[in-house]
DNA sequence: GCCGTTTTCGGCCCGACTGTTTTCAGTCG
C-alpha cells in the first residue's frame, strides 16, 4: 500500500470515530488525523519504516497505531478498523475531500437520503440539491443547500482540500494582493504567512496578515479585491476570498502593537503552534494571535507583542526561523538555546548549475541567455564564481569524437571569456546524464576537458530502488562527477520522483567527497526538506544551485535556501558558501 | 491514541466565522 492510501485510510478512521461518538473518541480522532498527516508528508515509503521496525519513531504513531499498521501490511486488513467502520456508510468518504464538508455533514446527508454508492455519491447529492430536497433537512436550510451545490461544483473544477500550487505561483498571487492591500492608508503592514513563509514546497491556501487599527476598513477593502471570484467568509477581523483558479486567500487583522503574535499564529505550522501553546499552558500562559493571557493573574488584559522575537522571548524561547516551525524538535532546541545557525541567502558565493545558450547541441533544453549575460548577473548577486553546466551534447546525434570537439570549442570560448572577465571566476562544468546502465553519457576523454561534472538522471525513471541506487552510485563514481543534481528527479504536481537508498548514497558521498544538489527550480525543489535534514545529520555536504536557463532565473536560489533551512542546514553544510579557492580545491579533489 | 526537563497517568491549543438557531455545532487553520 502506498503512503497516500494509508493516509486516506487513517483519515477515514478519524472521521468514522467522530461520527460514532464525537465526545468519547475526541482524542482518537485527533490522534488518527495527526498520524494521517505524518504519513501523507513522508518522503520515503512507509514500507521502509515497517521493514526496519521504526514505525513508532514517526510523530503521532505510537504502540497502538503501529500495531494496526503492521496488521494492515501483513494481512491487508485491521480488526479494530473494521469495528470502527461498522455502521458507517462508505458513501461518506469521498465527500470528505470537499471543502466545507466534515464527517457530520457528510453523514447527515448520506444517512438521510440512504446513499449507498461511493462512486456516485457526489452526483447524487448534487441532484438532490438541484431538486431542492436538502434545504428541508433538520439543521440545513436554503443557504446551506446552495453552499453545498457550489462546493460540489468547485470541487469538480479542481478545488479540493488537498490541491496545492508551486511556490512562485503562490508568491505571485500573494504579492499582487499585498500590493493591493497597501493601497489602503489604514494598512500599516501586510505580509504573506503560512506555508508560504515557511517555504513549504507546495502551497494550499495563501495566508496574509495585516496590521491595522481599522479592521473593518481593511476587511471591506480586501473583500472588494477586483480579481476575486467570490467572498468565502467575511467577519470582523478575518475574511477569505477565492481568486481565479480556485485559489483561496485568508486574511486576518490585528492592531499594530499585536502584530508579533499574529505573525506567529498565522505562520504556523499547526503542529508547531499546538506544541508551543501546550508548553505555555504549563507556565500558565495562554497563547493566541491576540497575544498572551497570564492565567494566574485574574482580570489582566491580554499582553500584546509587536514583534515575534518579543513573543518567543516571553515564553522563554530563542527566536525560531519560520522554515523550522514544523514541531520536529525545534522547540526543544529553542528551550535549550541550542538552535542551529542556519544558512542564509547572503552566504552563497556561487551557482554551479546554470545553462547558457552556448550551442552545445544537447538532447535536453538549451539555456536562453549568453555566458556574458549570466556572468553579469552573477556579479550583481555578489557571487565570486559561476559554473556553466549545460547538458552534454546529444549522444544519439554525435560520435564521441564529435562530442569532444564540441566541448573543446566551448572550452576555448570559456578560456577567452575568463581572460576578459576577472570579477567573477568561472568553472567549466557540464550536466551529464547518468544512463540506465550507470555509465555517464560522455567518455573519460571528454570529461577531462571539464573542471567537474554535475551528474543526473533524465531517463528511465521507473527503475526500482536498488537498481536506481546502483545506477546513481555508478554515475557518481567517475572522478569528475562531483555533484548529484536534482537527486530524486521529482517534479512537483507532475511526478513523485524515484526512490533511492539514502543511507547508501550518504555513505558513498562522504567516502568519496561528493555533494548532493539542492535544486532551487520551483517545480523541483529537490532534495526534499526531510532528506536534507537526514543529509545534515549524516554530515553529507550539499550545494544550492538554481538550474537557471536564463538570467532572470538566477535569483531562484532564494527558494533553495529556504529549502535548505527547512532541512536545518547550516552554512558549513553548504559547499557553495566557500570562497573561490576553497570551493575550487574541493571541486578538483 | 499519543506523550513525557514537574507526568508511564492524566493531560490533550485557541479562536474565527457561518448557518440555523436564540446558545451552539460544525468546519477551518
Notable characteristics:
alpha/beta, 589 residues, DNA-binding, five-stranded parallel β-sheet, single chain
What topology emerges from the helices and strands here?
Layout: H1 3-20, H2 26-40, H3 46-51, H4 63-75, H5 79-85, H6 103-112, H7 121-130, H8 142-156, E1 165-166, H9 167-182, E2 189-192, H10 194-198, E3 202-203, E4 206-211, H11 215-223, E5 228-234, E6 238-243, E7 247-254, H12 259-267, H13 270-282, E8 285-288, E9 291-294, H14 308-314, H15 330-335, E10 350-354, H16 371-380, E11 385-388, H17 400-420, E12 425-428, E13 431-433, H18 444-447, E14 453-456, H19 465-476, E15 481-484, H20 502-512, E16 515-519, H21 529-537, E17 542-545, H22 557-566, H23 580-587
Parallel strand pairs: 4-7, 10-11, 11-12, 13-14, 14-15, 15-16, 16-17
Antiparallel strand pairs: 1-3, 2-4, 5-6, 6-7, 8-9
Helix pairs in contact: 1-2, 7-8, 12-14, 21-22
The chain binds one DNA strand of 29 nucleotides through helix 2, helix 4, helix 6, helix 8 and strand 6.
Amino acid at each position: 500500500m502506498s503512503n497516500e492510501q494509508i493516509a486516506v485510510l487513517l483519515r477515514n478512521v478519524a472521521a468514522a470515530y467522530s461520527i460514532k461518538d464525537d465526545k468519547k473518541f475526541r482524542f482518537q480522532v485527533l490522534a488518527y488525523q495527526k498520524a494521517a498527516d505524518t504519513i501523507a508528508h513522508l518522503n520515503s515509503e512507509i514500507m521502509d519504516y515497517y521493514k526496519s521496525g521504526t514505525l513508532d519513531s514517526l510523530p503521532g504513531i505510537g504502540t497502538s497505531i503501529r500495531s494496526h499498521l503492521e496488521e494492515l501490511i501483513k494481512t491487508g486488513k485491521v480488526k479494530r478498523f473494521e469495528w470502527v467502520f461498522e455502521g458507517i456508510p462508505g458513501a461518506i468518504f469521498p465527500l470528505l475531500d470537499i471543502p466545507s464538508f466534515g464527517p457530520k455533514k457528510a453523514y447527515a446527508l448520506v444517512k438521510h437520503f440512504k446513499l449507498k454508492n461511493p462512486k456516485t455519491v457526489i452526483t447524487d447529492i448534487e441532484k438532490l440539491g438541484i431538486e431542492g430536497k436538502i434545504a428541508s433537512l433538520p439543521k440545513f436550510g436554503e443557504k446551506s443547500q446552495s453552499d453545498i451545490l457550489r462546493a460540489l461544483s468547485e470541487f469538480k473544477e479542481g478545488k479540493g482540500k488537498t490541491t496545492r500550487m508551486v511556490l512562485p505561483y503562490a508568491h505571485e498571487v500573494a504579492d499582487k494582493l499585498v500590493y493591493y492591500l497597501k493601497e489602503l492608508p489604514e494598512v500599516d503592514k501586510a505580509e504573506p504567512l503560512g506555508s508560504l513563509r515557511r517555504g513549504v514546497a507546495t502551497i494550499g491556501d495563501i495566508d496574509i496578515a495585516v496590521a491595522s487599527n481599522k479592521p473593518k476598513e481593511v476587511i471591506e477593502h480586501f473583500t472588494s479585491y477586483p480579481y476575486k471570484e467570490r467572498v468565502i467568509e467575511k467577519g470582523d477581523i478575518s475574511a477569505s476570498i477565492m481568486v481565479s483558479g480556485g485559489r483561496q486567500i485568508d486574511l486576518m487583522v490585528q492592531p499594530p502593537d499585536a502584530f508579533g503574535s499574529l505573525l506567529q499564529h498565522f505562520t504556523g505550522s499547526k503542529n508547531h503552534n499546538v506544541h508551543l501553546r501546550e508548553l505555555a499552558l504549563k507556565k500558565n500562559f495562554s497563547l493566541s494571535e491576540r497575544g498572551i493571557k497570564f492565567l494566574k493573574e485574574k482580570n489582566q488584559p491580554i499582553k500584546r507583542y509587536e514583534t515575534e522575537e518579543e513573543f518567543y522571548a516571553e515564553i522563554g524561547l530563542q527566536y525560531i526561523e519560520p522554515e523550522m516551525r514544523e514541531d520536529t524538535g525545534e522547540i526543544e532546541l529553542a528551550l535549550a538555546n541550542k538552535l542551529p545557525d542556519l544558512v542564509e541567502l547572503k552566504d552563497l558565493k556561487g551557482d554551479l548549475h546554470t545553462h547558457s545558450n552556448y550551442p552545445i547541441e544537447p538532447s535536453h533544453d538549451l539555456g536562453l541567455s549568453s555566458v556574458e549575460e549570466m556572468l553579469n548577473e552573477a556579479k550583481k548577486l555578489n557571487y565570486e564564481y559561476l559554473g556553466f553546466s549545460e547538458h552534454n551534447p546529444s549522444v544519439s546525434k554525435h560520435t564521441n569524437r564529435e562530442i569532444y570537439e564540441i566541448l573543446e570549442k566551448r572550452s576555448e570560448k570559456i578560456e577567452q571569456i575568463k581572460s576578459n572577465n576577472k570579477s567573477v571566476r568561472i568553472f567549466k562544468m557540464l550536466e551529464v546524464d547518468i544512463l540506465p546502465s550507470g555509465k555517464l553519457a560522455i567518455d573519460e576523454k571528454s570529461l577531462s576537458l571539464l573542471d567537474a561534472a554535475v551528474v543526473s538522471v533524465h531517463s528511465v525513471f521507473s527503475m526500482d530502488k536498488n537498481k536506481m541506487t546502483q545506477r546513481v552510485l555508478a554515475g557518481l563514481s567517475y572522478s569528475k562527477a562531483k555533484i548529484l543534481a536534482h537527486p530524486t528527479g521529482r517534479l512537483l504536481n507532475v511526478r513523485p520522483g524515484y526512490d533511492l537508498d539514502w543511507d547508501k548514497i550518504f555513505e558513498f558521498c562522504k567516502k568519496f567527497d561528493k555533494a548532493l544538489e539542492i535544486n532551487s527550480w520551483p517545480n523541483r525543489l529537490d532534495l526534499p526538506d526531510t532528506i536534507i535534514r537526514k543529509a545534515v545529520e549524516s554530515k553529507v555536504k550539499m550545494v544550492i544551485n538554481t538550474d537557471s536557463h536564463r538570467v532572470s532565473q538566477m535569483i531562484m536560489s532564494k527558494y533553495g535556501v529556504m529549502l535548505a533551512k527547512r532541512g536545518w542546514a547550516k552554512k558549513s553544510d553548504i559547499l557553495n558558501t566557500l570562497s573561490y579557492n576553497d570551493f575550487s580545491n574541493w571541486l578538483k579533489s
